[in-house]
Write a structure and sequence with these properties.
Elements (H helix, E strand, L loop, with lengths): L1 E5 L12 H8 L4 E5 L13 E2 L9 E2 L1 H14 L5 E11 L2 H8 L3 E5 L5 E2 L9 E4 L9 H12 L32 E2 L2 E2 L9 H19 L1 H6 L4 H13 L1
Parallel strand pairs: 1-2, 1-6, 4-7, 5-6, 5-8
Antiparallel strand pairs: 3-4, 9-10
Helix pairs in contact: 3-4, 5-7
Bound molecules: 4-amino-N-(piperidin-4-yl)-1,2,5-oxadiazole-3-carboxamide.
Length: 242
């Protein structure tokens, strides 16, 4: 997968050289290119921003450096691109969107910093996306979150026996609680069923815990998924125990 990022703080993306995403780059599963669009400014002082027409506080990213950086990407690597603009006004990012990004050949992320941008940048963009209802100082951290969440769905990025599809949000439920050694930690004991060796009992216990946690914390998620007969039965049990 090719990912290009337009940012005036390219060093921030060194964070993606670590851990799982760093390994994905080493394995050639991710080809990450960070382009400093300040290199494309035609302004003598290398400015990429200017004051808004009509007045008001703050500065806006100008269209020209972004357009020229995009032309550079297109010349270097023609072909279809999904162009994502980070913006609190965008559609909220979720696992489904990460899966759809993971199927693309080439993603481009446009990161603003400090300020807003000239509306005409949007003609370059296929998706306006937000990571949540809060305002950050730049689009760099949201971009890194999206790259991380997207790459987990690219085959080969996670270890052999790990699948992103088994995580919370992929099957629509929050995860059941987990424990590791020791079985008794300062008097806090691991639920007996987990040390029973009965795999079927363990599976049902985990499913019920996942349903219970989701019902308690994110009942909205339960409405978006289709429960099978076993899950419906467990949910009835949970309701009668409450
Ligand atoms: C977000 C967000 C964001 C908006 C960038 C103000 C600097 C900032 N981007 N999800 N200008 N939330 N962007 O806050 O994506």
């Amino acid at each position: 997968m090719d990912i290009s990022v337009l940012s005036i703080f390219p060093k921030m993306f060194d964070a993606l050289n670590e851990s799982v995403i760093g390994k994905a780059q080493e394995k050639g599963l991710l080809n990450l290119q960070v382009v400093d669009f300040r290199d494309f400014t035609t302004d003598k002082q290398n400015h990429v921003d200017d004051a808004p027409y009509g007045g008001g506080a703050g500065m806006l990213l100008q269209a020209q450096p972004i357009y020229d950086a995009m032309s550079y990407l297109d010349n270097e690597n023609p072909g279809k691109k999904r162009v994502i603009l980070l913006d609190p006004a965008g559609k909220t990012f979720d696992a489904k969107m990460a899966q759809s990004f993971a199927k693309e050949d080439h993603l481009v992320f446009i990161c603003g910093h400090y300020e807003g941008f000239d509306e005409r940048i949007k003609d370059l963009v296929t998706d306006e996306v937000s990571i949540g209802d809060y305002v950050l100082t730049g689009g760099e951290l949201p971009t890194m979150s999206m790259i991380d969440a997207t790459m987990r769905f690219v085959p080969g990025v996670l270890g052999n026996n790990v699948s992103a599809d088994e995580d919370s949000f992929s099957h629509g439920l929050l995860e059941y609680p987990q424990y590791t050694r020791p079985a008794d930690f300062r008097g806090k004991k691991v639920p007996e069923v987990l040390t029973s060796g009965n795999h079927e009992k363990i599976r049902v216990w985990r499913l019920k815990q996942a349903l219970k946690k989701t019902l308690e914390r994110r009942p909205d998620l339960l409405k978006t998924i289709e429960l099978n007969d076993e899950e419906k039965k467990l949910l009835r049990e949970i309701h009668s125990e409450m």
